[in-house]
Design a protein that fits this description.
The chain is of the alpha/beta class. The chain is about 35% helix and about 20% strand. A six-stranded parallel beta sheet has the order 2-1-3-4-5-6, sandwiched between helices. A five-stranded mixed barrel has the order 15-16-17-19-18. It binds iron/sulfur cluster.
Length: about 450
């Protein structure tokens, strides 16, 4: 009997890459590849890469070194690189890393099976052409990832905003939205297969269909998805604060299926820095939207992204960021030291703060956020939360799920509860998760 071929897949970066990786698994399954967690066991290694920060990009090259060593003892091993680094580097990557067999860009998943088949015959290839057409959403299958009751559904891709620090418009292309009918069709199919929660995904979901006047906009799309029977909870990411319209805020008041959580990246609390970043809002405008969301949906949890040490950020600007954080009270925050990405506007800006100053600011910001996160988690003690059980926890001895506010929660229970939305009483709020107990009728 033929042994199944093995795929080792590593994913870096954002949820769009996580979603693309689910599609990659489905595509490779169609070619007879089963996933393995051990690269030594693999016949095919694929890296789905991220280039949002220099460190993320360097990690890819570091990882490639590891697979090069494995290939020395297993010359038939096929190595492929996809995602944003692949999009940026293209053919150059094949030259820099002669042991790599294939390079596929962010719009080229539909070509992956052909490229892997060619690599099996010893041919190397690179495909990084952009497909600026809605058809590209139909060129590859939806994910078939198993378990957990929750799935990503891509509603748009690309971005037209050109924030000064961001590589995304360069590696993901211009904004394209998928038709509402296709999105609803996919959500309905997922609901029919037992999925209870969907996350509508895009680089900037709030501007969904902004280039297609007359089509449903994002609030309309949310209302259409909310009508799908079987779907109990809807999330979406990522949102741009400037496109957070009153109609979208109203959805949080009107749609009971919309999870009380929003990832709303501010990036800075300083108007001067926000302007240099080309973000299109002031700190006051951002805070006004936060206040409106809190009013529409009491108890809503905010998460966000913050960049520390952007060129021109001085101590006063940093203090503006700390003040904004204090007002929002984020449940969690992803914070990073700015790193210049070649080809972006900000890469041309003079940068006078030292690395040590930036590191010091990041440490202060993260220490403050740690306290807020713990306080917010503790404030949930004694409350009953709707938790979607995703499966077993990482330790395997309890269940893991997420509250509507997107807080990770562990609780005792039977693994057969995976996929169900249950009432869970929070008994303890810890730094990184909540502990709860299922409320039985
Ligand atoms: S909105 Fe700005 S930060 Fe977000 S993907 Fe577009 S350019 Fe990048």
């Amino acid at each position: 009997m033929n042994q199944a071929k093995k795929l080792y897949l590593e994913t870096f970066g954002c949820q769009m890459n996580v979603s693309d990786s689910e599609k990659i698994v489905t595509l490779m399954k169609g070619m007879g590849y089963q996933q393995t967690q051990d690269p030594v066991d693999a016949d095919l290694v694929l890296l789905n890469t991220c280039s949002i920060r220099a460190t993320a990009e360097q990690r890819v090259y570091g990882h490639l070194g590891k697979f090069k060593s494995i290939k020395k003892t297993k010359p038939g091993l096929i190595i492929g690189v996809g995602g944003c680094v692949a999009q940026q580097e293209g053919e150059k990557l094949l030259k820099k890393a002669p042991f790599v067999n294939l390079v596929f860009g962010t719009h080229n998943l539909h070509l992956l099976q052909g490229m892997v088949a060619a690599a099996e015959e010893g041919k190397r290839s690179s495909q990084t052409d952009f497909l600026d057409d809605e058809k590209r959403f139909d060129l590859f299958p939806h994910s078939e990832a198993e378990g957990g009751g929750t799935r990503f559904v891509t509603v748009m891709q690309g971005c037209d905003n050109f924030c000064a620090y961001c590589i995304v418009p360069h590696v993901r292309g211009r904004e394209i939205s998928r038709s509402a009918a296709k999105v609803v069709e996919e959500v309905r199919a997922l609901a029919d297969s037992g999925v209870t929660e969907v996350t509508l995904l895009g680089q900037n979901v709030n501007s969904y269909c902004s280039k297609q006047p007359g089509e449903p906009d994002f609030p309309d799309l949310l209302r259409l998805v909310a009508q799908v029977d079987g779907i109990e909870r809807i999330r979406f990411t990522t949102s741009h604060p400037k496109d957070m319209s009153p109609r979208l805020i109203e959805c949080f008041a009107d749609l009971s299926k919309l999870a009380p959580h929003i990832h709303l990246p501010a990036q800075s609390g300083s108007d001067r820095v926000l302007q240099k970043m080309n973000r299109g809002y002031t700190a006051q405008q951002y805070l006004a939207k936060v206040a409106a969301l809190k009013e529409a949906c009491p108890g809503i949890q905010f998460t966000g992204d913050m960049i520390v040490g952007f060129p021109g950020e001085d101590e006063a600007a940093f203090q503006d960021t700390m003040a904004l954080m204090e007002q929002v009270q984020y449940a969690d925050l992803f914070s990073f030291i700015y790193s210049a990405r070649p080809g972006t506007k900000a890469a041309e800006y003079a940068d006078d703060a030292t690395r040590a100053e930036k590191q010091g600011r990041l440490e202060r910001l993260q220490a403050a956020q740690k306290q807020t996160t713990l306080a917010r988690n503790r404030s949930l003690e004694g409350t009953v939360q709707k938790v979607l059980v995703e499966g077993l926890s990482s330790t395997g001895d309890s269940l893991f799920g997420r509250t509507g506010g997107n807080r990770g929660t562990v609780m005792a229970g039977d693994p057969s509860l995976a996929g169900r939305v249950l009432d869970v009483r929070i008994v303890e709020g810890l730094q990184t998760l909540l502990k709860g107990e299922i409320v039985h009728d």
